[in-house]
Amino acid sequence: MLSIENWYGRYGDLTVLHDLKLTVSSGSIVSVVGANGAGKSSLMKSVMGVEIQTQGKMEFEGEDIGHWSTQRRVEEAGISLVPEGRRLFPEMTVRENLEMGCYTPRARKLRDRGFDFVYSLLPKLREREKQPAGSLSGGEQQMVALGRSLMSQPRLLLLDEPFLGLAPIMVRQVSRFIQELKEMGLTILMVEQNATSSLQQSDWGYVLVSGRIVFEGKGDGLLHSQDLRNVYLGV
Amino acid sequence: MIFLQLLISGILIGGVYALISLGLTLIFGVMRIVNFVHGDMLMVAMYLSYWLFTLYSVELYTGLFLVIPVLAALGALIYWGVIRFAIRRSHEASILATIGISIVIQNAALLLWSSDYRSVHNEWATHSLQWGDLRISAPLLIAFIGALLVTGLVFAFLHYTYLGKAIRAASMDRFAAILMGVNPQRIFTVSFAIGTALVGVAGALLSSVYAVHPTLGTQFLLISFVVVVLGGLGSLRGAILGGLLIGVVETVSAYFIGASMKQLVYLLLFLVILIVKPAGLFGKRIPEVNQ
C-alpha cells in the first residue's frame, strides 16, 4: 500500500532521516521502533508531508505521492496521522474535535456515517460529546484522537507513540482497539518507543536508530531477537 | 446619576472597542502576528464611509455593504502581498512588515486627503436619546448595537460553520489542523480578511462619532492592544470584556481627570496587567508556533 525508498528528511540543514526503505502492505500492522530522538516522529511527519522537507520516492498504491500537499494526502490518498501527544483542540468539545476529523470534502459527505462508526467503536466518546477535549483524561484523549482520525475515512492510519503516557490498562485497551481496526481492514503504521506493546501485535517491524533503519523482521521475531536487545536496552 | 451616565457611555464606546479588538485578536490567535496595520484599516474604512456619504450621499449604514467587502479584500491583499512572506520568518519580520505597511497607508492617506479632520454629519450625528437625566448619543448607540450584532455573527460563524471551526482549530493547534486537511494559507487569508472587515465595520460605525484624519489609526491601535492584552492574547471572549472595560475606564477617567489624561489611566492599567497577570483575564500561555 505504502512504500518509501531512498527516503531522506531534513529540517533546514539538519538531516534526520537517512536513506530509509520501508514497505507497508495492505491490511497489515507495521511498527517502527526506536529510542527517543531516533527520528520516529520525523518519519510520521514526512509521510504526511508536514513540517519536514523530504527527498526520495514515496508511493501509495502505486502512485507517486511524494510531492503531494498534506491536504491531498489526507483527502485523496486517505492517510491520517494520530500525532504524538494527541494534539487535540483543547477548547473544542469532543464532538467538534471529531467534526474537524472529517474536514475534507470527501469525509464531510460521510459525516453522519463517520459519527455512527466512531461512536459504535468508542461509545464513551458519545457520553463525553459535549465536554471540552482538554478536560478528558489521557486515555480518553487518546480515544478522541483515534476517533478524530477515523472520521477522515482513512485507509492508512499512522500512529505516533499511541501508548505514550498511558496507564497499563489503557495500553491494553488501545492495543486491542488497534487490533480491531486491523480486522476491519485498516492498514496501520505506528512508531513506538514501547517495543513490546507495538511489535507484539505487528506483522512486520523496523528498528530505527539515529534516523536509519538498522533491522527489520517479523514483529514478534524481531522483539525476541538478540539484535534488538543489543541496540535497544531496556526492552 | 453621573456615574450611571458614564457607565452607559463607556459601555457603548467599549462595544466598538471590542469589535476593533476582536479583529486584532482573531488575527493574532490564528497567525501569531501583531498586526500594526489594524488601526489604519479603521482609518481607511472611516474615509471610505466619509467619501461615500459626502460624494454620493450613501448613508453610513448602507455604506457598510460596500465597506465590508472592500476592507475584507484589502485584508486578503495585505496578507497575500506581504504578510505571507513575513510570517515564515521571525516575529520581528512580521512586526516590521506591518509597521511598514502602516506607514505607507498613513502617508498615502495624507497625500490623498490632507491632514484635515473630517466627519460625517448625517441626520443622526447630533441626535441623542434622553431618559430623565440620562443622555445617550444616537450614533454611539447605533454603533454599539451594530458592534453587538456583528460580534454575534462572528461568534456564530466561528462555532457553527466548518470554516469557522477550522479557524478556531488552527488557532489552538496549527499542526493538528493541517493534519485534518486544513489548508493553512486559506485559513490565514480568510482570518486576515475577516479581522480587517471587522475593523472596517467599526470604522463605518464610528465615522459619525469621531472625525477621521490620516493618523487616527494609531490611537485606536493602542487602545485595541491594551484591550487584547487585558483580555488575553488570542481570546475572543477576552477581547469583548476587555473592550467594554477599557471603554468604561476611559470614559470615567476622562470625566474625573480630564480628556487629555484619559490615556494615562488605561496605559497605567495596561502596565499593571502586564506585571500582575501577563496572560490577561482569559489568556493562557500560548506556545510559540514555528513554521
UniProtKB/TrEMBL annotation, chain A:
The gene is livF. This is High-affinity branched-chain amino acid transport ATP-binding protein LivF. One of its GO terms (biological process) is L-amino acid transport. GO terms for molecular function: ATP binding; ATP hydrolysis activity; branched-chain amino acid transmembrane transporter activity. Keywords: Amino-acid transport, ATP-binding, Nucleotide-binding, Transport. The keyword ATP-binding applies. Residues 2-235 form the ABC transporter domain. Belongs to the ABC transporter superfamily. SMART domains: AAA. The keyword tRNA-binding does not apply. It holds the Pfam family ABC_tran. InterPro entries: AAA+_ATPase (IPR003593), ABC_transporter-like_ATP-bd (IPR003439), ABC_transporter-like_CS (IPR017871), BCAA_Transport_ATP-bd_LivF (IPR052156), P-loop_NTPase (IPR027417). SUPFAM superfamilies: P-loop containing nucleoside triphosphate hydrolases. It comes from Marinithermofilum abyssi.
From TrEMBL, chain B:
The chain crosses the membrane at residues 6-29, 41-58, 64-83, 95-114, 134-158, 187-210, 216-233, 240-258, 264-283. GO terms for molecular function: transmembrane transporter activity. It is a multi-pass membrane protein. Pfam families: BPD_transp_2 (PF02653). InterPro entries: ABC_transp_permease, BCAA_transport_permease. PANTHER family: AMINO ACID ABC TRANSPORTER PERMEASE PROTEIN, BRANCHED-CHAIN AMINO ACID TRANSPORT SYSTEM PERMEASE PROTEIN LIVH. This is Branched-chain amino acid ABC transporter permease. It comes from Marinithermofilum abyssi.
